[in-house]
Amino acid sequence: MESNSPIFIVMLGVPGAGKGTQAQRLEEKLGLKQVSTGDIFRDNLRNQTPLGQLAKSYMDKGELVPDDVTIRMVEERLSRPDCAKGAIMDGFPRTLAQADAFDKMLRGKGQKVALVPLIGVTDDEVMDRLTGRRVCRRCQGVFHLMFNPPPPAGECPQGDKSLCDIYQRDDDKPETVRNRLFVYYKQTAPLIGYYFAHGLLAEINGAQAIDKVTSDLWDVLDKAMA
Ligand code: ADP
Ligand code: ADP
Fold first, then answer.
1. Atom of ligand 2 at shortest range from CA of 134
2. Cα of 63 from ligand 1 centre, angstroms
3. Pick the CATH number of 7-132+188-225 from 3.40.50.300, 1.10.3720.10, 3.40.50.720, 3.90.980.10
4. How far is CA 80 from the centre of its chain?
5. Is 134 a catalytic residue?
6. Of the bound ligands, which one is closest to the alpha carbon of residue 142?
7. 147 near 213, Cβ under 8 Å?
8. Is residue 77's pLDDT more than 60?
């Protein structure tokens, strides 16, 4: 896949579909930065910034952080040099207002979204995935107790010098997961129609082994960028 203009890919799918897992793999393959709004909010939370404190009240309930705050944060993130070649958007946009703002943001620079892979999985699968999800505070690696076990103590699969610091996210408890799914269907699912109408949607079967999802994703990207 080759292109001189920046490439923006939007990963779409319910919480737990595998957006982050696949975005991390694409990051390496494509040489594009993964921009995860969830990771940015969690970093802010850890560093106790005002943005982190504001985001916490929404994240704890599985609600979305307000659009204006989120859009400003993404605009700032994308203006950094490591996004000059584009980005793999993981968790943004999540509302129609965000999608519209994102289009305007890119249009202002003569850019546009290149492809929107929609990773499809069922709600039952998502419950198992999210309650077994474990993440690393240091390398942001995403693991699963059964499907993709975290590294043994003292190792980091990303080759990071510091060791992995594995934890379970507060919002991966079953009560919060149920609300996050509800919020997804209400606020994020309309983006499926939005991107379909723009001819950008590519459906991927997410209920397959992680490697198979990656190779399907790669095929779709290759075709789209050919
Ligand atoms: P997941 O992929 O499991 O849904 P994320 O890490 O993407 O989780 O997001 C965690 C939380 O961060 C969301 O439930 C929400 O509160 C907040 N968040 C992340 N991205 C956005 C966004 N684009 N707009 C509003 N809130 C967001
Ligand atoms: P999202 O970013 O869409 O919320 P993640 O990439 O964080 O989803 O994946 C959610 C959980 O499911 C993680 O624990 C991850 O290891 C696991 N997972 C991701 N893809 C698959 C897959 N194809 N099969 C089984 N488990 C998966």
1. 14
2. 8
3. 3.40.50.300
4. 18
5. no
6. 2
7. no
8. yes
